[in-house]
Amino acid sequence: MGNGGYKQAAGGHTPPVGQRLIAEFREPPAQFAGCFTTFYHLTLDLPEIGAVVTDYLQPEWANIRFFCGTAPEAAIAANKVSGVPFVGTGPSTLPCRFTLGPVRMWGVGFLPLGWSRFFDADASDCANVICDGTAHPAFAHFGAMTDVLCDPEATLDEQFQALVTAMERAMRPNREEARIARVHAALVNGDHASVHDLAEACAMSIRTLERVCTRYFGFAPKLLMRRQRFMRSLATFMLHRGRPWTEAMDAHYHDQAQFTREFHEFMTMNPSEYAALDHPILTSFMEARARARGSAAQTLDPPAPR
């Protein structure tokens, strides 16, 4: 069911001596097709008492994460969270800077279809939000899972089954699922030059496209198209550390100056500044994810076949 035990680092990246990162990905049951990027369990062991690592998550879809051990300090722009076991994040167009010690963590990523089935709030109301999940109205209904997912005595199989059971109880259908799937597929698979082209590919008006994107994807269509292009480039770079940015750039960037501007908008730093940073978590995790799931980042996951 899972593909785990990955402890590799990408070329040019050396994790701290004694650090061990294990990522195990569990396939959600068939009734959840198209709802989740993945269910995954992460184990981080560090060599010294009190040791921590710092890294940056790239823009992604919404997530819930449950921490057993060290709770993170994390921030997306001015939104910050510290010391809580259940962290909720909305869809993002900005990086999440986090500091983490030794931990066992369960994570669940929600695709737009999953947002429609599991959340009552508009995704745009949670855009670039990171929060104590128990205290935020959009995420609080998942809080009951904290006890079992943060129980050090429970096995991974027991925790996974509890996660599946809770999601089965929480899921309800949405009448716009077909539209959500069309937009998602067009964003991931298409290279559209304009919002008009994207709307045409989705067989809907621009106004309907904008409403669906705001409600379930979190952002306006143009911004989603730009984020998709950027994430293709960033994922290529992260999987081929040492490759020049010019080789990782998506072909639809006009030139390196445009890419640099986009990079700074989405990651709040220049490409050279990002490349100079250590990525003790993200590099190894993205490699593991690419091997287990076929894509290195949430935003590159396609919708379920219909």
TrEMBL record:
Domain HTH araC/xylS-type: 177-277
One of the record's GO molecular function terms: sequence-specific DNA binding
Signal peptide per UniProt: none
One Pfam entry name: HTH_18
Domain of life from the UniProt record: Bacteria
Cited InterPro entries: HTH_AraC
Name used for this protein in its record: AraC-like DNA-binding protein
Species the sequence originates in: Erythrobacter ramosus
